[in-house]
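README: folding subset

This subset contains proteins for which both the sequence and a predicted structure token string are available. Records are stored as plain text. Below is the entry for Transcriptional activator, Rgg/GadR/MutR family domain-containing protein (288 residues), shown exactly as it appears on disk.
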Amino acid sequence: MNFGPKIREIRIKKGLSQKETYSGIISKSYAIEFEKGKHSISANFLIHVLERLNMDMDEFLFIYMDYRLSPYSSYIYRLSSYSNTHNVDSLHQLYRELSEKNTEIYRVRAAETRCRIRVIEQFKMTGIWDTTCILKEDQAFIQEYLVRIETWTLQEIQLFGNTIEFLDFHAHFPLFKNLSKSLSLYMNYDRGREIFCVMLINLISQAIKHQFLDYAEVLIQQLKLLSSDYKEFFHAAIARYFDSILLIKRGDHEQGYAEAEKLLLFFRELNQQSLADELAVHIKKVSL
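--- output ---
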């Protein structure tokens, strides 16, 4: 990709000269050719240029794509939006689009989407969130893909987080060990923290479901550490909800139920009905 013409467009709109933008980074003659699209610059130089423009790489790439999400970001946005609202028709459309692209990563995404479709359809029919209805071939394909990747970056971590409930529970431990090495590397990166928070929420849910309460408690503490900033208050609220479920599991029913119901009401008041319904499954299982 040659970013020069777009950099020039942004520079002019911001009222900056070439000297202000490129001085000490690249020469004047090279900058002229770069903005014409005839030269490229290294990622390191591009970051320095973007600093002069008061812009980070994520925003620049979004503008470069004409304010459109990347294919992966679009996929995650659609999958999350449709899943959170239980929009099965749109999930089926997404699945059809993914199935048309015959590459491994698109097959992984199609398997993830089909898992989500089957669970939501089952939930709508029975009122029970039951992941045993997914196809074994989808579970195996996702799991084998994650096991094969030696070093995970955020997309693998996000895939693991989004599909934890579909995988064999005992496969979580080596997979989580693999990704936990990356946690400290992403602590100061907002997007990374968000992905880790969601992953921990889903992992805690499965740990409680399978009665690994001490493991769940450790994960809740990790979630709280990642949710200390006001931007993660929603994740912090979910961490408190899991605390209340642990209280119930360990015998303090009165306080546990009171805290859990208060937080479920909070989520519903924020128009997060689907999330509240999914979290309420933990109370129903404790009550059985």
